[in-house]
Every structure is written in structure tokens, then in C-alpha cells.
Amino acid sequence: MRVPTIKDVAILAGVGIGTVSRVLNNSQQVSPKTRERVLAAIQELGFQPNRVARQLSRGTQIQNIGIILPYVSYYSFVERLRGVQQALRTMNSDYDLVLFDVSHPQHYDEQLAEIITHGSIAGLLIMTLNLSIEQREALDDAGIVYVGVSDRCPADWPCVGIDNVAAAQRAVEYLLQLGHRRIAYVGDVLDDEYHFPTSQDRCEGYRQALEAYGIAPNPDYCRLGAHGRDVAQRLTSELLALPEPPTAIFAMSDIQALGCITAIHETGRRVPDDISVIGFDDIEISHYAGLSTVNQHLQDSGRVAALALLHMLQKTFEPDMLQMPTPELMPRQTTAPYRP
Q1: Which strands, in side-by-side order, build the sheet including 276-278?
Q2: Does domain 50-160+302-322 have CATH number 3.40.50.1110?
Q3: Distance of CA 182 to the CA centre of its chain
Q4: Measured between alpha carbons, how far is 233 from 239 in angstroms, rounded to an integer?
Q5: CA 46, CA 13: separation in Å to the nearest integer?
């Protein structure tokens, strides 16, 4: 039998999750009529109140920090998790990490509702995903502090991020400075199921760099697909089959850049003699592959976010704790000057 959730209560009572949370926390911001409707739904479903709220009411300190994220196997998320662990060691923290993996957007809503209702979480790190106003209110009412790590940070809640447009523009400018003019972009679809802005922002930086040099972006040079090395390899094969293939490729991520390089080698071409390739992220494998890339300080993003969260829990947080290093261009062996 499935355990009823706060979302089930909200649906049955015809209110939002935040309203249910306020009723559970005895907030005075709920009208008597609405409170009665929510309590009736709770009773009908046999819903169990928030364990976090019960522990706090007993004065029990919660010793867990949650991390909610999609695509837990992505190299970029692994690097950020290393940064989180580094922060816990730096602060000599006794908090344990609890990982909440999200498999699809609806699952995110469900996981977040479960965290608010049943999880023993004092603080929450939200990787790449966004929060609605109602979700933020529900977290606030449950006494859960939170920090985001995002590719496009919202202005109204604490978050760590970078300027992807500017960083991508710098990568493409580097290729232009090497003399390349036929430059392709290989990235994720611009509007995926999570509505991540990453590919859109890095593609925009790519376009701005070309236009600054008086080059009109060639639609044939923009290849988009699902995130992954194999897809990037296929997209690069399509680029190489063009009557006038690119002389350089800017890939949205290092993993995709490695897929591009594989496709180039399969055609007998050489990197960087025939085609230059630059990625984005600077994950660990990129050092060994000699991949030119943009270091967006992934470990630092996890470390800075976790430190900020720990300071929030200690009531010593300052906004400047969310500052991140500027992304850094890392020229290596996969880029070279254009050779006619």
C-alpha cells in the first residue's frame, strides 16, 4: 500500500503543498475554512505529519543534509559532489549526506514533497533544478534551509552559478583568435524535459562570439541532441559529411567533446591538425585526454554551496559566501591555429 504524501493531501483538499505545510506547522496564515479542509484530507488519507517538524518541536537536532539532483551519473555532478564532501571535511561537520536522485520532472515534485514531509533533512542542496514560489514557501515552513547550484541562478533565493553565455563566448573567441572561421557547436537540445538553460546559454555565447567577428552563424554548424558521448559522435559525423565541414568544434561539455574527437579520428582526420575541438567543464578525464576546455570550477561550486548551507545552519551566513571564481580557459592539445 502506497504511503500518502503531502501532495496527495494538497490535491484532495484543493490547495497547494505550501498551504498543507503551513497547516502542519500551525501557521496563522491559513483561514479556518481552509485549515478544516486540509485537516479533513489528512484524516481521510491517514497522512503522517512531517517528521522534521516533530523532531524540531522536541528539540532534536537533525544531522542530515540532503542533495537533490537529476542525472546523478553525469561527470559534472560527480565533481560537484566531491566539492560538497570537501566542505563537510573543512567545517568538521557531523552532518551526513542523503542523496535524492530525480529521474524525471514529475519525480522532482514528488521527491521534494517527500523531503518536506517525511525526510529528516536540516538543509538541502538543489543541483541545477529550480524552485517554485510555493515550493520555497513549503521548505521555509518546514524549517529546511536550502542553497541552489545552477547554470542560471534565480535572484530570489541563495544560489551558486556562473555566466554560461560569457564563458562560452570566451571559448569561441579563443578559436576565432586561432584563425578559425568555420566553427560548429555540438550541444544538448535547447529545451529538454527539465528546461535546463545550459545548452541555450552556451549556444548563445557561441553565436555572440561569431557575430562579434562579423560572422553569421551557419545553421548547418549547430548540431543538437541528447546529452552523451555517443550522440555527440553521431552529430560530429554529420558535420564532417558536409560539403564544407567546420575546422573547429565547440562542444557544450567535455564528454561531448570526447565524442567529437572519436568521430574525427574515425574519418582519418587528426585533432588538432585538421580540426580543433574545445569542450566545457574541465572534468578530471579532460586532463589526461589533453582536452582544451573551459574550467567552470565544478568542485568549487559544490564546496561553496555546501559551505554556505552549513553557515546558514549555524546562523552565520553572509551573501558574499556564494561568490564563485570566474570560469577559466584551459588551452591544451586539442586546439591549434587554423591551417588552410
Answers
A1: 222-225, 183-188, 248-251, 276-278
A2: no
A3: 30
A4: 10
A5: 14
Fold for the domain defined by 164-295? Rossmann fold (3.40.50)
Q: What residues are paired with 66 via a beta bridge?
A: 98, 124
* Check whether domain 1-49 has CATH 1.10.260.40, yes or no: yes
Q: Per-residue pLDDT tens for 258-316?
A: 999 999 999 999 999 999 999 999 999 999 999 999 999 999 999 999 999 999 999 99
Question: What global pTM score does this model have?
Answer: 0.81
Q: Give the N- to C-terminal CA distance of the chain in Å, as an integer.
A: 68
pLDDT in tens, 218-261: 999 999 999 899 999 999 999 999 999 999 999 999 999 999 99
Q: Is 40 helix (H, G, I), strand (E, B) or coil?
A: helix
Q: Which amino acid is at 82?
A: R
- The residue ranges of DSSP E strands in 71-206, in sequence order, are 96-102, 123-127, 145-149, 159-160, 183-188
Smallest CA-to-CA distance from 142 within 229, 27, 286 is with 27
